[in-house]
Amino acid sequence: MQKNICDKLAFGYGSKYQLLRMLGWHRNELNEASAESAKVDSEINWLDFTFNGPEDKEILNFEFIPGINKEWTTYWACGKGGINWDAVGISKDGTIILVEAKAHLGELKGAGADWKDPDTIANNTKVITTVQKEYEINRSVSNWTGAGYQLANRIIALDFLLKKGYKAKLVYLLFENGYEFNTEDYKSLSHDEWIDEMNKLFKLTRIKGTKLEEKVNICIFNCNKK
To answer: Fewer CB near the terminus (10 Å): N or C of the chain?
Structure first.
């Protein structure tokens, strides 16, 4: 059971439940917290998902921007998949807010890239080394394709949008006091514990202390306020 609960839509089960709860019942607070983190106006329009059975379909890559998605999937070889955004918002000034939501440590741990096609490996390795060089990262492809892969490909996606002239922000929306499953990977983290875990991730991907770290906006949201 524990292996399958990371992203379940059920009471207390992970970020999907908490994010829907905040979007539905606490949207003003979510907007204010997200806006403060991303440094944008708090008037945020959250994009709808596509209907696709009972769970619906998450927003994939940049399908919400006409004319850009095809170029993105050529630039960053995604195969049939790609990046599933937990939420995408547009602020009053047109800034795109790309949200990666986490409710417990198990959701933060990444499995790494699973590329098998030689052309995909060559293409994406080239993209990684180029971005790392541009941001003066102590370069190591393996740090971005292993456990740090999820953060790395979100950063690459953000960088792609910025280079195309879009205003965009990446927000890691981290829920505290929202998960009580009693195992190490699935326990709720406190504010300070989330900061510690994100710092570990920044060090793993070697963006700690670089300009890329500044592009990852951390929003810790208390989802059980008294």
So the answer is: C
